[in-house]
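Changelog-linked ticket: MRU example.
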Amino acid sequence: MSSTLTKIYPLKYTGNSLKVLDQRKLPAEEIYVECSTYNEVIQAIQNMLVRGAPAIGFAGAWACCLAVKAVDDKRDLLRIFHEIELARPTAVNLSKAIRRMEKCLIEKGAGSLENEAEAIYKEDIEMCNIMASHGLTVLPNKSEFTLLTHCNTGSLATAGIGTALGVIKFLVQQNKKVHVYATETRPYLQGARLTAWELQKCGIQVSVLPDSAVTYLMKTAKIDAVYVGADRIVSNGDTANKVGTYMIALAAQREKVPFYVVAPSTSFDLNLQSGEEIEIEQRSSKELSEFNNKQICPSGIDFYNPAFDITPSELISGYITEKGVLNVSKFKYNF
Ligand code: MRU
């Protein structure tokens, strides 16, 4: 495998535990934390040791495998699976993975759960590769590209090369010269800490910018396209993704920059009709009031810290999925 597609493993299932690369410590330290119980995996998801929609999906599936090692009763297990599902609310990948594990438990029994979790993981690798090849088809035929991405959508967030970042890696793999602008992604800094680290590891040129510099960048530099991931895409195409995505989509529309969402079928929720129905996770005020464990805001004030926002479908140029590049009218025939 060439360095461009260098694989980083966010999770390693050992059969008795789940080793989780602690993404909170990146880029300074690469440390795996060993979770031996389903409850420890729930904590790892909630505390962002593992994050990114596909990755929390298969982390949840493996948490189910750890649960069956400790509990025999099927009804208790189904209750625990539901507890795992509630670890984070916005990315539908987690719910979808848990539905599969429930079905497997009911229809095939506890002995088949590890195979099911492995299947979810392997399918994600494959979907990343297929999305990456579809993602190139929307670009003009030229040799140099300047692209913008938000949050972290690469190997750290998936089983494979990534969603939005997978397309970018694949483009570099085709010998194109690519310059990536990665938003720092306040307040959790997935862009500055994780995307910059991952792209550097893959030898891809990256510039980190403050989220608030996106409009100025688009006004003054020629950005060929924006590629972002998704946590939940609903029937009308409205898309939940990392907070700040909507703002970037608005800027892209104004500056006539194509804006693509790259996501596997596991991120689609056609049970919901519009973005207003999506539950948006509110995270701890500490993510805003502290920096490097130091308080940076006055005590006793309020915060507003949604982890995601909703980009309306009319701002999205196309949905790059493993089924091809789709528009909203094609969703119901493909998922
Ligand atoms: O809060 P996070 O880091 O889990 O948010 C991640 C994102 O919003 C990603 O853009 C999304 O999950 C797509 S990852 C392939």
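Closing comment: Example verified and attached. Residues 11-125 form a domain with the Four Helix Bundle (Hemerythrin (Met), subunit A) fold (CATH 1.20.120.420). DSSP finds eleven helices and 16 strands in the chain.
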